[in-house]
Structures are given as C-alpha cells and as structure tokens.
Amino acid sequence: MNRKKTTPEPVRAVPAFVRVMMRHKNALRRLPDESAGALLKALLEYAETGAANVEAFPEPARIAFEFLRPDLDDDARLTELRRKAAAARWEKEKRYGR
Predict the structure, then answer these.
(1) Are 57 and 65 in contact (CB under 8 A)?
(2) Dist. CA 83–CA 60, nearest whole Å
(3) CA R_g for the chain
C-alpha cells in the first residue's frame, strides 16, 4: 500500500491575543468611548487579517491605531517565528524520534 504524505496547508499565524501596553493607558483614556470602541475593533481586525479599514473611523481612533500598529506588527512577526520554530522541532522529533 502506497500512502502519500500530506502536509497541511500553512495557516497564517494569528496571535492569540492583542497586546495593548499599559504605557498607552493615559492616551487611550482620553479617547471618547466611540473612538475607543472603533480602535479596539480595528486592532482585532488588523491582528487577524493584517489589514484594517480605519479610514471610516473617527480621527482620534485612526491616530491611535497608527501608534499601536508597530506593536501588532512585532507581535505578528514573533508569532510567525515561534510557529516556524515549533514546526521545525516537531519535524525533527518525527524524523529522529523522541
């Protein structure tokens, strides 16, 4: 019996959480609730898909998003690196046993 090895398709590494730093607390506190809600939605969308349509959001939320975007990008890069390292360890263990 000849079995083909199937490799699962790579899945985009999505962080398990969205990190909002305590150092941003005072700035975020100044946002009106509508802007803060829009910002949270944009952060979640961006973390999941890598894109967010912030143009329709209130100006304060757009500005805050731009300050927080680099942290999300760093988290996404770290998540991807960790996913690749875990896959490499798994492959090594399958190959050499453990």
Answers:
(1) yes
(2) 34
(3) 19
Instruction: Render pLDDT for 27-52 as a digit per residue (tens, 0 to 9).
Output: 889 999 988 888 888 888 888 888 88
Please check whether residue 43 is in contact with residue 20, taking contact to mean a CB–CB distance below 8 angstroms. Answer: yes
State the Cα–Cα distance between residues 70 and 62, nearest whole angstrom.
Answer: 14
pLDDT tens per residue across span 49-76: 888 888 888 888 888 888 888 888 888 8
How far is residue 46's CA from residue 34's CA, in Å, rounded to a whole number?
Answer: 18
Tell me, yes or no, if the pTM score tops 0.70: no
Q: Is 3 helix (H, G, I), strand (E, B) or coil?
A: coil
Q: Residue 67: how many CB atoms within 10 A of its CB?
A: 11
Contact 70, 47 (CB under 8 A): no
